[in-house]
Amino acid sequence: MRELTLRICRDGLPDTEMILSALMERERLCSTGIGDEVAIPHAKIKGLASLSAAFGRSGKGVDFHSMDNKPVKWIFLLLASDSSATVHLKALARISRLMKSKGLRERMENASSSAELYSLLKEEDERLG
User: Fold this and answer.
1) What is the pairing mode between strands 38-39 and 33-35?
2) Per residue in 28-65, pLDDT tens?
3) Where are the domains of the chain?
4) Which CATH class for the 2-128 domain?
5) Catalytic: 88?
6) Catalytic pick from 23, 36, 38, 42?
């Protein structure tokens, strides 16, 4: 999560350690590893203007204490304002729905670039409407 947090903070978000602390606190409540090698770590951040997201993949997998006890390969990190529950929940639901597709996950496994991963996610999102 640190790598993705640093990536988001490079894009203009302040206080990397505070954000990482909020994410870790959320993980202590319950793992955000939802199964099928997917995790959606997320936190609400006071004063954040809009939803921020980062995506990463791990070839080896990361132990996220997932519901299915499998290592996580696909990590979607979300940060939302502490006053935007609706946007936050919709984003979580959308990612979960996208990643339920075994076909998408298989195509993503074979993607050779971040541009190709983005394109696959965008296509699936458009297909789902």
Assistant:
1) antiparallel
2) 999 999 999 999 999 998 888 888 899 999 989 999 99
3) 2-128
4) alpha beta
5) no
6) 42
